Amino acid sequence: MFLLFFALWVIFNGTITLEICLFGVAISAAMFAFICKFMDYSIAKEKQVLKRSLPFIRYCLVLVKEIVKANFAVMHMILSEREEIEPALVSFRSDMKTATGRAFLANAITLTPGTITVSLEGEEYLVHCLDESLAVGIDDSVFTQLLKDMEEEL
């Protein structure tokens, strides 16, 4: 929460100088002390929130990395002089335990260029891939393992 207060302070000021950072630290500390005293908040709760958010932050970073990689793969596919692009429909099952995990996986697939989740019914995914090469390993992607780990922690 302290870091959030400090980040908001810097964002609202619009520039970063030594004075702004020092005032930001002081004001953020005062606000954090206030919520700890009067709003039943503690550093232990802060650690718990941070511990729970780290896997999600890791998932977001991996998602961005995979989106960039897929963008380059699709650009290469389009700009190269390959004769034919072979679209493919891939069907697979996932053993995600929660509907939220399944929805996150479907969204990750859709956000990655060259693939789109056509349907998700129960545990069965139907994914359209721009080319057969993009369909390789889609059922056991890095997203699947990250989301399984997140489900287990929660």
Name the average pLDDT.
88
Largest beta sheet: what is the strand line-up? 1-3-2
Number of strands: 3
Q: Give the % helix.
A: 55-70%
Order of helices and strands: HHHEHEEHH
* General shape: elongated
Structural class: alpha+beta
Spatial gap, N to C terminus: 21 Å
Low-pLDDT stretches: none
Largest sheet: number of strands, sense, barrel closure = 3 strands, antiparallel
Beta percentage is 5-15%
Number of helices: 6
Summarize the topology.
Blueprint: H1 2-13, H2 18-38, H3 43-79, E1 88-93, H4 99-111, E2 115-121, E3 124-129, H5 132-135, H6 142-153
Your description of this structure?
With 154 residues, the protein is of the alpha+beta class. Helix content is 64%, strand content 12%. It has helices at residues 2-13, 18-38, 43-79, 99-111, 132-135, 142-153; strands at residues 88-93, 115-121, 124-129. The chain has a three-stranded antiparallel beta sheet with strand order 1-3-2. A hairpin with a 2-residue loop joins strand 2 and strand 3. Helix 3 runs antiparallel to helix 6 (142-153) and helix 4 packs antiparallel against helix 6 (142-153). The longest helix has 37 residues, at 43-79. The model has no long low-confidence stretch (mean pLDDT 88).
Provide tags for this entry.
12% strand, elongated
Quick overview of this protein structure:
With about 150 residues, the chain is of the alpha+beta class. The protein contains six helices and three strands; from the N terminus they run H-H-H-E-H-E-E-H-H. It has a three-stranded antiparallel sheet with strand order 1-3-2.
